[in-house]
Specification:
Helix content is about 35%, strand content about 25%. The protein is of the alpha+beta class. The strands form four sheets. It has a five-stranded mixed beta sheet with strand order 2-13-10-3-9. The protein binds the ligand Cc1c[n+]2nc(N)[nH]c2nc1OC(C)C.
């Protein structure tokens, strides 16, 4: 059987390999519980044989125990996924279902770019950022507050006034293409890890356990919605809510636009499709949302996605492999 030193070396390699895959590439090579078991076995081995401990052992990571995961956060308002439309007919059906159910001839929508990043939820209490979490499975996400504090465009305190006592803002963390190219150029120069695409870069960065590591990758954020709201009112439409979020200091994409009916949606889709390659960030489609909140509540949700919103995806594009 292997000596304690050999066993420790095997454990160290497995832990580091699983850790890198998880934090750099958002890949889960082994289940969290297995990862934690390996770390605990290595700790026990190092306690029994102190001569085995060396500086780069995963048990020596910042804050002592190799943090194996983030705290869990339960979303009071679930972070939902979106139904997809891939054709104009499906978009027309989406509009027809809403206009029939709400008995309206013309329906106004908020049309928005669908960024190819990482959905997150930001919680503010009395106007101060208190917690940020990933989407996770929609109900439970990971607390990545420390990493989100490194993102310059995310306000630590709200600007202006009149915000609710509790305000959750939902949006997308992403890495702009220029920052992605710069990161990879630097990685090539210094034999670092070249990243496959901006989405993985954003996911990997947000899940770095060491906020200093996370800060090395320039991330951005666009707000696109709200979660829990307590002790205050928001405007009656989604578009007015986005305008309000902008006043409170959140970045909101200039591409967001209020349009009318199926024609308005499809014109928006074609316009964004044309402009797509010139945008500063990757998008994988656009999102249409019934603009008035009362109507949204009437439409409700089907399974895990709202009836009042769909994503209209672009045909898959060959990924720029770097
Ligand atoms: C998942 C998602 C993604 N996006 N992206 C935008 N722009 N809005 C938006 N809304 C989403 O979900 C809400 C409709 C619940």
């Amino acid at each position: 059987s292997p000596s304690p030193a050999q066993r420790a070396e095997i454990l160290r390699r497995q832990i580091d390999e699983a850790g890198k895959a998880y934090y750099d590439r958002d890949e889960q090579l082994i289940p969290d519980a297995e990862y934690d078991r390996l770390v605990r076995e290595l700790e026990a081995l190092e306690q029994a044989h102190p001569e085995l401990v060396n500086a780069d052992s995963p048990t020596q990571r910042v804050g002592g125990k190799a943090a194996s995961r983030f705290a869990e956060v339960r979303h009071a308002v679930p972070m939902l996924s979106l139904g997809n439309a891939f054709s104009d007919e499906e978009v027309q059906d989406f509009v027809r279902r809403i206009s029939e159910r709400l008995r309206r001839d013309t329906v106004r929508f908020s049309a928005e770019p669908k960024l190819d990043g990482l959905a997150i939820s930001l919680r503010y209490e009395d106007g101060r950022f208190v917690q940020g979490a990933t989407r996770g499975d929609g109900t439970t996400g990971e607390d990545v507050s420390a990493n989100l504090r490194q993102i310059k465009v995310i306000p630590h305190t709200l600007q202006g006034s009149g915000w609710p006592q509790v305000l959750e803002v939902r949006g997308e963390v992403y890495m702009a293409r220029a920052d992605f190219e710069a990161y990879n150029a630097d990685a090539r120069l210094h034999e670092g890890k070249v990243l496959a695409n901006p989405r993985n870069a954003a996911a990997g960065s947000l899940r770095q356990l060491d906020p200093k590591m996370s800060a090395r990758r320039k991330l951005s954020f666009y707000a696109y919605g709200i979660g829990e709201v307590r002790g205050g009112e928001l405007p009656p439409t989604h578009s007015a809510t986005l305008a309000q979020l902008k006043e409170w200091g959140f970045p909101v994409s200039e591409l967001c636009q209020v349009v009318e009916g199926g024609e308005g949606l499809l014109a928006y889709y074609r316009d964004i499709a044309e402009r797509r390659d010139g945008l500063a960030f990757d998008i994988d489609g656009v999102v249409y949302k019934l603009d008035d909140r009362a109507g949204q509540e009437q439409m409700g949700f089907v399974s895990r996605a709202p009836r009042w919103a769909i994503a209209h995806k672009f045909p898959a594009q060959e990924q720029t492999t770097t």
